[in-house]
Amino acid sequence: MESATASKGKKILVTGSNGLLGSTLVRVLEEKGHKILEFQGDIADAANVQKHAEDIGPEDWIIHTAALTDVNMCEKDRDLCHGVNVEGTRNVVDLARSCVAKLIYISTVSVFSGEEGDYKEGDLPYPKNYYNLSKYLGEIAVSAYPKSTILRINLIGLHPDGSRGQNFLEWLYDSIEQNKDTNLFTDVRINPLSNWTLAEIITRIMDTDVKERVLHLGSRDVLSKAEVAQFLLTRLPGYSGKATLMSVDEVSKAAFRPKEIWLNVEKAQNVLGMEFPTLEQEIEKIFNSKPIK
Fold first, then answer.
1. Distance separating alpha carbons of residues 10 and 274, to the nearest angstrom
2. How confident is the model at residue 6 (pLDDT cuts 50, 70, 90)?
3. Cα 222 from Cα 260, distance rounded (Å)
């Protein structure tokens, strides 16, 4: 049941507002009548983060989506990764604490080892590369603040302004459009949600003032990345590149890549009183969402 204040506009600070999820959140939240404050500057600079304290109060929200997500870069430049993903998150927590604001932290399924999948909220994280470790350290910082919620996600989508980031679907979409040869991993399984669905769910979490400290968000079904690609190919006919089915173990990489990166979403569905979509439905939503250049 939604709270009595659900229909009233909120003041919400969004970090990472240029990213895939952050930019989508700004659009969705503004359409719902909320006042959005887009974080500016270096999140690893504590003084810069605290400058926003004058704009936020106890009834307001901070949604922390900003992160360095290039896994190989995080492995090669651990100081940079730690500065953004760990120290930056601690700075955001300190901001929320000083303002007594509510905080939502966007984490990742990859805090787990990726050996088993079907991870529940109470399962013990076991990060196996530096990016994953940095996100888990961010979780630890956030969990010390009682007015916070950690959302573990796996995200796919296309930026609403037509720009391109680094998520799997964007890379795949561009490869197919440009007829590039692609390696499709048959042993990496995922259950992500689109940027649009995640933005709607986050709005619902704020409107209902969910008290759960950790929730897992994802599609109801699990597909390999190769299966996702094959589904996408039916929506983008005319691809003339070569698609090679293979194991992720066959590709040289700077950082360890987990394989079973999917979440158990039963608790979140029960808490939110809704059924999450299938992955195929999410791909359709991404294709139908505008504007996309």
1. 23
2. very low
3. 10
Q: Pairing mode, if any, of strands 148-153 and 223-224?
A: unpaired
Q: Where are the domains of the chain?
A: 11-288
pLDDT digits (tens, 9 = 90+) for 158-187: 887 766 666 788 888 888 888 999 888 999
With both helix axes pointing from N to C terminus, report the angle between 195-208 and 20-31 in degrees, rounded to the nearest 10: 50
Alpha-carbon gap, residue 264 to 112, rounded angstroms: 12
Radius of gyration, CA atoms only, the chain:
19
Which residue type sits at 245?
A: L
Cβ contact 101:142 at 8 Å: no
Mean pLDDT of 36-47: 93
Residue 290 CA to residue 196 CA, distance in Å, equals 11
Neighbours of 58 (CB within 10 A): 9
Q: Mark residue 190 as left, alpha or beta (left: phi above 0; alpha: psi -120 to 50; beta: remaining).
A: beta
Instruction: Enumerate the H helices of the chain as residue ranges.
Output: 20-31, 46-50, 71-76, 78-81, 88-99, 130-143, 168-177, 195-208, 225-233, 266-272, 279-288
Q: How many helices (H) and strands (E) does the chain have?
A: 11, 13
Domain 11-288 fold is Rossmann fold (3.40.50)
Dig out the tokens for 25 from the structure.
């959140």
Q: 237-265, pLDDT tens digit by residue?
A: 888 889 899 998 887 677 788 899 999 99
- Picking from 197, 194, 212, the residue whose alpha carbon sits closest to that of residue 143 is 212
d(CA 224, CA 242): 18
